[in-house]
Amino acid sequence: MPDPHDPSFADRASAQFRRRLLTLAVVALAGLALLTARLVYLQAWQ
Amino acid sequence: MNDTGWWARLRPVVAVDVPLLLCIVLLLATGLVTVYSAAADFPGRFAAQLRNIGIALAIMWVAANVPPPRLMRHAAAIYGIGVLMLLAVLVAGVSKKGATRWLYVGFDFQPSEIMKIAMPLMLAWFFHHFGAARRWQNFAVAAVLLAFPVGLIMKQPDLGTALLVLAAGFYVIVLAGLPWRALAALAVAGIAAMPLSWPLLHDYQRHRVMTLLNPDADPLGKGFQIKQAGIAIGSGGVSGKGWLEGTQGHLGFLPERSTDFIFSVYAEEFGLAGNIVLLVLYFLLIVRGLQITGRAATPFSRLLAGAITMILFTYAFINIGMVSGIFPVVGVPLPFISYGGTALMTLGLGCGMLMAIERESRALARGRLGGLP
Questions:
Q1: How many Cβ atoms sit within 10 Å of the Cβ of residue B349?
Q2: At B168, which helix (H) or strand (E)?
Q3: Taking Cα atoms as reference points, which of A35, A42, A36, A38 lies closest to residue B237?
Q4: In chain B, is it the N or the C terminus that has fewer CB atoms within a 10 Å radius of its CB?
Q5: What pTM does this model have?
Q6: Strand pairing category for B94-96 and B99-104
Q7: In this predicted complex, what is the ipTM?
């Protein structure tokens, strides 16, 4: 089991957190893009 | 902004994050303009919304002045009080329109609103103290801490709030490092459980799903609201009909037009151009929240900031998705825009916490963490 007090463990945890955050940022961006596409369809296309 | 001159002297007193505050103020102004139009036939609502905004900004300022370590010390107690109040609703709650969601404490108070903030607070506290090793047992305990209050809220029933509380906790668990294979298994299990959960839904919830799948089935009955919202959005076109000129809203075709369905009034009057501006404002708000999360000083602050930011996105995504016919109708307001005090105050509290976290990371970066007030 990794030692949480080991500095390299802290670095890895931080890198993992940043990857997770980036994933959620992409999810949010994709969500806003989906809403934009839906509104363009309803208001400018239909 | 440089910490020199007058701003350096003012900053400790003001204690707010200017980019975040700017996004919030622009959204609140947009909301106020829309409430003025949407609630034209409810004359007291505009003044009440002004008062709500004042209270929400005051709550935000107070929260921005609470150092995250102090918040962390009280996280478990806040969660415990929230759960006890949800249990009290079950036993002695006030019922309105078939739902039992309130406690009478001199006025009707909705405890589930507390859980929108108490849940990420509790799980961030939990993973800060016990999550470093990322053991399966920790994720199992977190799942129980999440599922119990969500179950109580669904029982009221209040699907919208239950979804938001579930999402808030879920974001903390994902950010805390739940393995991808577990996430994939959860997604598969969730999809597989959909047919099984159908009989557990209330009648009105089943009607909402059926209305989404076929809005034309009952256009004058159960599908009226979503059908009229669609007409309002579409009739706004690219440039909109103009402020106070929306016919769907002003002729009374849109139920709940100043609360959960306010987006249809906004979209009719300001059109696609206005909608793009609104989505850009939400985008900037989320980007600032993610910046604050990325710079946060402790695991508690990181997890809390990430969950609050993603909840802001979830509010906007579900509300606009619901009004524009992507999702079934659930009771989720449009953040900073919809009329209503409780949601505004919860949002103010969450954004104040984001500001406190940003302040903590700035202080740490300068090597004077102990100097926080």
A1: 20
A2: helix B159-175
A3: A42
A4: N
A5: 0.91
A6: antiparallel
A7: 0.90
